[in-house]
Amino acid sequence: MDNLSHEDLQLRGNQLTDESLESTRKILGLAIEFQDAGIKIITMLDEQGEQLNLIEEGMDQINKDMREIEKTLTELDKCYGLFVCPCNSGRYINHITNDTREDEMEENLIQVGDILGNLQNMALDMGNEIEVQN
Q1: Please, which residues have CB within 8 angstroms of residue 25's CB and are 6 or more apart in sequence?
Q2: How far apart are CA 89 and CA 23, in angstroms?
Q3: Where is the T-SNARE coiled-coil homology domain (predicted)?
Q4: Rounded to an integer, what distance in angstroms lies between the CA atom of residue 74 and that of residue 8?
Q5: Pick from 65, 58, 51, 54: which is nearest to 123 by CA?
């Protein structure tokens, strides 16, 4: 360094200043990118939270509807004695007239039972997913 002239030192100082300026520009650019990414993440999390709230409300409604359907089926059983335990007979209704209407009622009730089972599984899966995301 002792052999360097004043001009060489000044030139080296300017070079270091230019390099430092370029480094700070890069750092500023990265900081702005990170800030933008943070804003996007916050926005996405907010949207995800809104979606989770809607899913949770939907699950609550599904559960409410399922309870209402079960209540209605129980009331029908009490009122009309149409339903018997499917595990005992394999059927939901006692066939009295043995016509196609009873067959269709049976099929409809089987499908309702399947759908209720699917909805219950879906509600459980959604609840598990919400717990995972929380």
Answers
A1: none
A2: 80
A3: 14-76, 99-134
A4: 97
A5: 58
DSSP calls for 63-119: HHHHHHHHHHHHHHHHHH--B--HHHHS-SB--SS-SHHHHHHHHHHHHHHHHHHHH
The pLDDT, as a whole number, for residue 81 is 56
Contacts 24+ apart (CB under 8 A), 56-59: 56/126, 56/130, 58/126, 59/123, 59/126, 59/127
pTM > 0.85: no
Beta bridge pairs of residue 83 = 93
Q: Give pLDDT < 70 ranges for the chain.
A: 1-2, 77, 79-93, 95
- Alpha carbon 45 to its chain's center: 12
pLDDT, tens only, 8-37? 999 988 899 989 999 999 999 999 999 989
Domain ranges of the chain: 1-51, 61-134
pLDDT of residue 96: 74
93 in Cβ contact with 83 (< 8 Å): yes
Please give the pLDDT value at position 91: 64
